[in-house]
Amino acid sequence: MADLLRLATAGSVDDGKSTLVGRLLYDTKSVLADQIDAVTRASVDKGLATPDLSLLVDGLRAEREQGITIDVAYRYFATPARSFVLADTPGHVQYTRNTVSGASTAQLVILLVDARKGVIEQTRRHAAVMALLGVPKLVLAVNKIDLVDDPAGVFARIVAEFSELTAKLGWAAEDVVEIPVSALHGDNVASRSANTPYYTGPSLIEHLESVPVDADSTRHEVGLRFPVQYVIRPRTTDYPDYRGYAGQVAAGTVRKGDEVVVLPSGTRTTVERIDTPNGELTSAQPGRSVTLILADDVDVSRGDTIVAADDAPEPIEAFDATVCWLGDKPLRPGARLLLKHGTRTTQAIVGALIERFDEQHLSADPAPESLALNDIGRISVRVAEPIAADDYSVNRYTGSFLLIDPAGGNTLAAGLVGDALTKVEVGTEVGA
């Protein structure tokens, strides 16, 4: 079992997500006493009998209302069994882009629904985004279960509908767990509640502590992928000939003595040394930031990728991709944008819009005229400089990219190399 679990929250407006996040922090004793005192005082001023735990995160929500394009609040908490990094994303439909950002590195997502409303349009949209991003595990938290007249029946109906949706989106049944909760009162959050006798599963925190998620589940087994972020040449008396290539290991493992290839040039060389501020390493795993010293004086620049010689991807200039469009203005064929992949940014032209995915009905609209805000679609792309990309199904990090507005620098799309929705059963409406 992993010592650290990366998770994200998602849900619609007013489904109680802020209260649930506040409850998780409160029940795991991850907030300071003065914060609780401040929340208690503010709750009394509002005429409430109990602390409004949503106030623990409302300050960050106010920041989002200022129109920041991608702003995800990260929260850290822990239990004796596991540590957690939680990406808290907003629920407004216009901020679906934030959900894409927050869930892109998540090993598990908690998707909230209001028991009184059930599975709604935004629930389907968020579930489709999670499927698109390849999130391994999903929790449906059916919140405000204490506010419905027939909680057992309501919970059963929501579970049945959601299970049908997730099955068609490609999740295995064992990777999706549904839990009835009351974030306000704490039912089934930290411990199982006597108020839900129809539910015999774990509490939310019990499930988060025990869910089997590989520490490296967001990166599949591929060889070394090392995007070069910076070339280090101190040119000092102590280091007259030093030339190092700094970056973060995106996939695979690099070891001293490994034969590697620099892409896109294709130059072969060997790793002579692996440097860090704390000294040399014999190897470095995914997520580790290091500086590689190569045996030969080869031409390497920012934006190049150092890869394993025995598992080198073919640099590509033209490819199909699945994108979630995040721009306010629609995407149309022929758009000239910037594409950022790893540390390389290059000019790109969008060719055909192959299809638009209807996440509400799980159907495909072939050859749409445009993609609007929050649309998911498959497009063809051509770049000015080749990129060393893997298919997203092979590796989430080296298979993802951003499309950027060349004029303003705004992020316009999150893109995935290949057809990331191949596992979705397209063509059959859920509930039909």
Binned strand content: 25-35%
Question: What Rg, in angstroms, do the CA atoms define?
Answer: 23 Å
Query: How would you characterize the largest beta sheet?
Result: 6 strands, mixed
Overall geometry: globular
**Treating each run of at least 4 consecutive H or I residues as one helix, how many helices?**
7
Order of helices and strands: EHHHEEHEHEHEHEEEEEEEEEEEEEEEE
Characterise this structure:
By secondary structure, this protein is α+β, with helices and mostly antiparallel strands. It is 18% helix and 33% strand. It contains 7 helices and 22 strands. The chain is globular, with a radius of gyration of 23 Å.
What does this entry show, briefly?
With 432 residues, this protein is of the alpha+beta class. It contains seven helices and 22 strands. The two termini are 39 Å apart.
Topology at a glance:
Layout: E1 4-11, H1 17-27, H2 33-45, H3 58-64, E2 73-78, E3 83-88, H4 96-103, E4 108-114, H5 121-133, E5 137-143, H6 151-168, E6 176-180, H7 204-210, E7 225-232, E8 244-248, E9 254-255, E10 259-263, E11 267-276, E12 279-281, E13 283-284, E14 289-294, E15 305-308, E16 316-325, E17 336-341, E18 344-358, E19 363-366, E20 376-387, E21 400-404, E22 411-417
Parallel strand pairs: 1-3, 1-4, 4-5, 5-6
Antiparallel strand pairs: 2-3, 7-8, 7-15, 8-14, 9-13, 10-11, 10-15, 11-12, 11-14, 16-20, 16-22, 17-18, 17-21, 18-19, 18-20, 21-22
